[in-house]
Amino acid sequence: MGYNSRMNYPFIVFDFDGTLADSMAESIRIFQQIGPELGLKPFTDLNAARNMPTRKVLKEVGVTFWKLPKVVRAFQAAAAERAHDLKLHPGLPDALADLHARGARLGVLSSNREDNIRKCLAANGVEHLFAFVIGHPHLFGKARALRRIRRRHKVERTDMVYVGDETRDVEAAHAAGVGAAAVGWGYHTAELLGRLNPTVLVKEPPELAVLAGGSQVAVA
How far is it, in rounded angstroms, from Cα 59 to Cα 65? Predict the structure, then answer.
């Protein structure tokens, strides 16, 4: 792992669950709620799951390709009940305000629903910092969505970074040809994310400043 001497992304797109929202406990509760009716296996070792790629975790709990859309819809519907109660990770509101003040344009691309995301952002007083919020219904379609966002906003690949907490987020950024910022406070462990060679691995929210020309942090 080395250090990046200069990094300045004027267009920063965030994942939501796990990256912005401190939603792991709520996600586990929802999974336990909807799992039995969908015929899914319960989590037996959360720590082990945090070190498994997303596709492997889904296979372990019995989410097949055909069952995945139904699981996503059920999860999103259950998440709507408490979206306004979700908190952002400690330090994130200030870090987001700092990026915005540095001139970065912020957005959200998430597998969660737009209304759920906006409820949480509004409740935490940061919705005004985001230029757009996109709820993408496909768990593994983010690369295509990132390319659409880039074309719609006429952004060069080198000016855009996607910030996420799961292996599928880093993989999507790589596939879309944009920067990949992995965060160490979400669902997947920093060790697992680091194996995918993200552009930068951010371990604490204040370190997000590096994305807009702030202080140096370690990069993969």
Answer: 9
